[in-house]
Structures are given as C-alpha cells and as structure tokens.
Amino acid sequence: MKLFGKKEAGFSLVELMVVVGIIGILAAIAVPKLQRFTAKAKQSEAKSTLHSIDTMQQAYYAENSSYGTDAQIGFSTPGGAKYAYSNLANSASFYTSRASWASGLLCPGDRDVDVWKIDQTGALSNSTNGADGC
C-alpha cells in the first residue's frame, strides 16, 4: 500500500521462508562433511600417537630385550587428547597398544566407536563400531 507516494519497505513472508529453506539445505549438506572432517582429524591424532608409542617401544626393546609399560617407555597421554591410550599386553616378545575414543567424547549409545591398535611389528589396524564422526 502506498502512503503519500512512498512504497512500503520490507520482506514478505514468502521471501523469508525461501531464505530459511536455503539455509536449512546448506546446513544439511555442511554438517555431515564437518563431522567426517573432525573424525579424520581425531584419527590422525590416534595414528600419530600410536606411531610414537611404537618408536618408544622399539627403543626400549633395543636397550632391554623386552617391551615395556607406559611408565617404562616414558609415555603419557598428551594433554587434550581425543583418544584414551593403553597397552593391552606387554611381555618380552610382544606388545599391543590401543587408542579408543576418550570416555567423554563417545557418541550417545556407543562404547568403543573407533579403536586403533599397533603391535610390535608396527602394524596399525582399525576397528569401528559404526563410527559416524560425532
């Protein structure tokens, strides 16, 4: 409606609904990609730390002819780590270290979402329980 020759300013409800719809579509595309990117970054942390543990274990083995515990090899979980690290088994001839999601970072309803393991041969393996990067 024109008042004194001036046009009304503003947006119609239809225009606002179109903008909200576009934002919703963009969010639906972006959120899963962000979750995958975040999961890959966390997994890179786990792999890097496990390779560090392997290096420490190999150095310890060279000096002592056996593999050691975390304390013996001088390993402690890095501050702010997204994974919890542990040695599953240690003996003179083998070791296996494990990285699993830290308890406060689990997806709702999951126990071990993403688990990485490394052994005395340096073989890195992964098992997932429906990891979706949450």
List the helices and strands and how they pair.
Blueprint: H1 13-64, H2 70-73, E1 83-90, E2 95-101, E3 114-119, E4 124-128
Antiparallel strand pairs: 1-2, 2-3, 3-4
Secondary-structure arrangement, i.e. CATH architecture = 2-Layer Sandwich
Give the C-level CATH assignment: Alpha Beta
The CATH topology name reads Glycoprotein, Type 4 Pilin
Strand order of the largest sheet: 1-2-3-4
What sequence of helices (H) and strands (E) makes up the elements? HHEEEE
Low-confidence runs (pLDDT<50, min 5 residues)?
A: 108-112, 130-134
Oligomer: single chain
Distance between the termini: 51 Å
The computed structural class is: alpha+beta
Strands, total number: 4
Calculate the mean pLDDT score and round it.
78
- What shape does the CA trace take? rod-shaped
Helix content: 40-55%
What share of the residues does DSSP label as strand, in percent? 15-25%
